[in-house]
Amino acid sequence: MRCEPFTNQRLFRLYEHVRDTLNDFKTMGGDIGSGMGEACLKDKERTATLMDKVWTLTTPGQEVADLGAGSGILGLTALLREAKHVHFVDQNPYLTSMIHFLATTMGFDNDRFSVNAGDAASIALAPGTRLDHVICELIGTGLIGESQVQAVQNLVGKGYTHTGTIYTPESSVSTVELVDVHSRALTQPVPYSTVRFSSETAAGVQTSVTVRGVREGVAASALIRTELEYHDGSRTGAFKNLCKPRKALLVREDKPSWDILVEPGTQLELRIEYAFGQRQMPKVFVQAH
Ligand SMILES: C[S@@+](CC[C@H](N)C(=O)[O-])C[C@H]1O[C@@H](n2cnc3c(N)ncnc32)[C@H](O)[C@@H]1O
Questions:
Q1: Ligand 1 pocket test target in 52, 92, 236 with most atoms within 8 Å of CB
Q2: Greatest CA span in the chain, whole angstroms?
């Protein structure tokens, strides 16, 4: 589900205000990091969709965490929706100082927010924190490259969540398919990993699936796609800056240098192995049946 940016005028005004403040901070020489937070914010379709999810899933009085808060846009949306308190977390101290500036100048009382600079995968929040809603957008396609699982599990492990806590997003479903050098699909996509962030115990993916050919060609790579699921049952797919399909290295286990030929009906077993949150090129091992 995507949003036409923006149907909710309050959210549109918030978006413009945060974007303009980020630009002002940059002009004043603020080091807002490698640009990921900024690129995400400026992907309007992505940001409008996530803001709409947060608006829908936040209820007045909730205690909320916004992990990988970036510009703070999602936690600020929760504050606008009358969250009791938002714990913002980002590793970039320039962004956290901007979040503090934004929340203060927007008129939110000091006791309604706290801003934490540090690694979301290990950060400790104030003693007694009891979260009703965890917002976390540290998502790399396939959960590669960003520490979504570790960040949510850190809060669960430290006892800040409870059985009624909701998570935005709640889970991810990743699929794999073989594609040729022009990125045309040679097999159907097959789900290989479903991760429910609140209860994930695995450190990564280690699984095998069988794919079936739908077109003739030589496989050049494995394509991974990820969809996100939300507490209201809706799903989102790829945006310019979220869940963009990504290629994995294809390795033929039995004859490393041979072409992997696919024809309609060909069955191939794919073994997929990688750790969540590592900056690495995932490998997909393939074996002809
Ligand atoms: C994908 S952006 C999302 C920003 C914001 N939540 C949004 O939706 O626009 C990810 C942000 O997470 C931060 N980040 C990445 N890894 C982190 C970590 N391990 N701990 C804390 N922040 C992290 C980055 O600095 C960046 O600002």
A1: 92
A2: 64
Same topology for domains 1-137 and 172-289, yes or no?
A: no
**pLDDT for 129-146, tens place per residue?**
999 999 999 999 999 999
For residue 192, give both structure tokens: 């290989």
Q: Which two tokens stand for residue 212?
A: 């079936």
Task: Give the domain ranges of the chain.
Answer: 1-137, 172-289
d(CA 140, CA 25) in angstroms, rounded, equals: 26
CATH number of the 1-137 domain = 3.40.50.150
CA–CA dist 22, 27 (Å, integer): 9
| CB distance 92 to ligand 1 below 6 Å | yes
Q: Express each pLDDT in 46-99 by its tens digit.
A: 999 999 999 999 999 999 999 999 999 999 999 999 999 999 999 999 899 999
Nearest atom (ligand 1) to Cα of 68: 12
Given CATH 2.60.40.150, say whether it is the number of domain 172-289.
Answer: no
Give the closest residue (by CA) to ligand 1 atom 10.
68
102 band by pLDDT with thresholds 50, 70 and 90: very high
50 CB less than 6 Å from ligand 1?
yes
